[in-house]
User: Fold this.
Amino acid sequence: MHYDLILRGGDVIDGQRKPRFKADVGVTGDRITTVGDLTATTANKVIDVTSRCVAPGLIDVHNHSDGWMLKSPHQLHKTAQGITTEVLMADGISYAPVDPHTAPEWIAYLRSLNGLRFDEYRGWESLNDYLALLDGRNVQHAAYHIPYANVRTMACGFGKRRIDDFQLRQMKYEIRKSMEEGAVGVSTGMDYLDQWYATTDELVATLSVLKETGGLYVTHMRYKTGLMAAMKEAVEICRRAEIPLHISHLKALGDIPPEAVLEYLDQEARKQVDLTFDVYPYQPGSTMLNSLLPYDVWDNGATAALGRLVQPEFRSRFARSLACQRLPLDRICIAWTLSKENACHQGKTLAQYVADVGKPAGEALLDLLLEERLSVLLVFLEGDDRKVYPMLQHECCMLGSDAIYYPNAVVHPRAFGSGPRWLGPCVREQKLFSLEDAVWKASGFAARRFGLPDRGVIQPGALADLMIFDPATICDTATFADPQQYPVGIDAVITAGQIIVRNNIPEDLGSENLPGRVIRAQPKALF
Assistant:
């Protein structure tokens, strides 16, 4: 038999938790066709991978790539890590579904999270319209959630209101239709636009559709109520709706130790619901500066919010609210600003910025949001990375980078380093798990949980999404001070049988008929 590609002589880690084994991997078209001894066979291309590991391409189940996959066919900061599949539309907020009224609101709100500009919006409304712009036009695959806030605001607009029976029926219809078309589940971000007004009862009612269609409830929990309360609400929603739960970026916060979080999960939550979670291998976090604002600033949508920032009553209320934020201003850093004029402040703490501009803190931060049209990204210095290690080790954990990317910015290093840190230092130096378990958590486990057929494994018939790396040297190099640094120890990354990256250098594949495809999930499938 003749192959298109043979990876010869490597140690195969198959994404199914089996011990690594020596084998050749034969690829024909976009599929793995043989795993075994191919010494006597030929191929169009043969790569000697002696002393290297061959593993499935990584699956990033939580990210903020929605805009970047539209803007660019190749996210090198992700593919250089070995990530071949992105599960889009996290946190209940994205660019679809939309209508002519909600589309500009989401573009404005998400500018500092997902990157899309107004001039880059091409008029799509449905999830399928958006996804059609990705299929075959990117080097990575894209699976997708149904973003809850998009569905909710199309049904009842923005602002503090409870949904009525008519709106509930509309939302359930949209969720059912999108699940039947191939979504992995429904995502929420309970600290983000409009979802803070969704009650527990509302979520139980709308998400009950998933009991029939299959699929996950994937949630950035209501952290502002407190970590334990947020977890208990998420569990209650899924217990009452009788659906599986996946918690996004689960970490111990504040004075709550990771052991207390895991004790609750194991002793109570997992006895009530089918539960998994994702984590990135860092304790510090990142999100938008506008997330510090009182909720009512958004009640008429994001495009109207700027007008509220100049109102004296609102400014006084925001200034007072800074005293009860979870972290002080000297532990929150500016990662990115919309304008070049304020880019000089990237990397500074908010405390340093306030001191530099010489204004009271509340006034300084609101003025910054006015200047930047609400678009400022932050990094939150939440403590030592060792605090996240127990979460990474847990059997229910998988990889979610939560990557937020901007060029020429001091972004969180997770955008460049999550995958190699997971497969390198977390295995070698920290000894959190075996390399086989690390690969499983970032590939096969994620594919199985999110219903992604033929992904995340190395076996005949599976899609040829692969990475080749040196287990002795694979490592992240990105730091908080200098985050835009590519990893070491990854030789090549392959999507659907095509090499897309070699040693952090992208392959020239043109711009048409690229190997990345939209994945239609099979939520109840096991493979």
Remarks:
- The longest helix spans residues 165-181.
- The chain has a mean pLDDT of 97.
